[in-house]
Design a protein that fits this description.
The protein is α/β, with parallel strands linked by helices. Helices cover about 45% and strands about 20% of the residues. The protein has 13 helices and 13 strands. The chain has helices at about 55, 75-95, 110-120, 125-135, 150-160, 200-210, 220-245, 260-265, 280-295, 300-305, 315-325, 330-345, 360-375, and strands at about 5-10, 20, 30-40, 40-50, 60-70, 105-110, 145, 170-175, 180-185, 195, 250-255, 275-280, 355-360. Strands 10-9-8-11-13-12 form a six-stranded mixed beta sheet, with helices on both faces. It has a five-stranded mixed beta sheet with strand order 5-4-3-6-7, sandwiched between helices. A two-stranded antiparallel ribbon has the order 1-2. The longest helix is centred in the middle third of the chain and has 27 residues, at about 220-245. Mean pLDDT is about 85; it is low at about 1-25 and about 50-60.
Length: about 375
């Protein structure tokens, strides 16, 4: 099927002001798609409606974006069942609550899960999980694709970055179990340069926790986290960034993933309605210090009370900040932010400035690009 619907990723900052191509059936009415992804930490679902005027003005609407935290990569019977229940329940919600036909519900397993399973020789857990899910929904032919890291990174770029910034933006998605991203170096979308690390928010935090001795205090955790991050920087991050060749070609460095959403929300709570937030390296350094020294100042009430703009909905701010704290505790925020800083540091230079962006709703863009690919096959 040819590309015949174009949508604009609506965002108040200019970074995401651009047109993306998207395919959908030729009905003159809204069409709803659901994408459900089994990730390292949980199951994510995004439901997107393509508006009836999409052909002319690119309208689309995010109807629902939700996550069930299950920790699949622990590879225990309990987390297996929790993840299976989460996937089945979200699949049912898409079907029954939103009346989405199964052919427009896409189910995938992320590259982070695949990489961790490969590392621990647990690939049979993924195979067994897919079979169990097919049985649960009584659909033995149900496709549950295990996405490789190159495909996931490429689709993320296509779904998140606008065409106007396509060839000068390096996109980096920090997940729970791994980090992946890249850019298009040759002015076309066929050739993609992959960037990847076997470090993510959860794996970094876990490594620091495992290194603790009898002293489990926050100060001890911080010291251990620094050692973990220094090791990751020296053995993996510097090499991966240099090998990517992205430095001279990428003016914009965009970060997506759960930690990018969290940091953006807590640093700029007054911009809760913005899909993208511009930050400096120094902004994130200061925020990282606050996580350790004054974590209570990042509570929903404290952040809302500091906002003086009467046009900002403080209730909405508190709800979003509460969401952050329900997903990440203090130590995981420290771990994810530390990893973010180590990567940002490689692009910070006194000779050439790079613009950093934090993308909050990256998973929706990923799913939209995946849907496009599936429809056109």
């Amino acid at each position: 099927m040819s590309k015949h619907i174009v949508f604009v990723v609506l965002c108040s900052l200019s970074f995401l002001t651009g047109i993306q191509s998207f395919s959908a059936p030729q009905e003159n009415k809204p069409v709803i798609y659901a994408g459900i992804e089994v990730g390292s930490k949980g199951v994510k679902m995004s439901i997107v409606e393509i508006g009836k005027n999409a052909q002319s003005n690119g309208e689309f609407r995010i109807i629902k974006d939700t996550t069930v935290n299950t920790d699949f990569i622990s590879f225990t019977e309990a987390t297996f069942q929790a993840t299976l229940n989460g996937l089945a329940s979200l699949f049912q919600v898409a079907q029954q609550d939103f009346n989405i036909p199964v052919k427009r519900i896409f189910t995938v397993i992320s590259s982070g899960v695949k990489m961790q399973a490969d590392k621990e020789k647990k690939t049979d857990w993924i195979t067994n999980f897919i079979t169990a899910f097919q049985q649960r929904v009584n659909d033995p032919g149900r496709k549950v694709e295990v996405v490789d890291v190159l495909q996931e990174a490429r689709l993320s770029h296509l779904g998140i970055v606008p065409n106007a910034r396509r060839y000068n933006t390096f996109l980096i998605d920090i997940g729970s179990g791994n980090t992946k991203g890249g850019y298009f170096p040759y002015g076309n979308t066929n050739e993609f340069k992959l960037f990847q690390l076997n470090w993510g928010t959860k794996s970094t935090t876990n490594a620091a926790e495992k290194g603790l001795s009898e002293d489990k205090s926050l100060a001890s955790y911080r010291r251990q986290l620094r050692m973990v991050l220094e090791g990751a920087e020296n053995t993996d991050i510097i090499y991966a960034v240099n090998a990517s060749g992205a430095y001279p070609l990428s003016d914009n460095i965009a970060f997506s993933g759960g930690i990018a959403w969290s940091v953006a929300t807590l640093i700029r709570p007054e911009m809760t309605g913005n899909s993208v937030v511009a930050v400096s390296y120094e902004d994130v350094v200061k925020f990282s210090e606050t996580l350790f020294t004054n974590f209570s100042s990042l509570s929903p009430e404290e952040l809302a009370n500091k906002i003086n703009d009467p046009g900002v909905n403080k209730e909405a701010v508190m709800r979003e900040v509460k969401r952050v704290h329900s997903v990440f505790d203090q130590r995981s925020l420290m771990g994810g932010t530390g990893l973010l800083l180590k990567i940002m540091r490689q692009f910070k230079s006194v000779y050439e400035s790079k613009q950093f962006y934090l993308v909050k709703n990256g998973q929706v863009g990923w799913i939209s690009a995946y849907v496009q690919d599936v429809i056109e096959d």
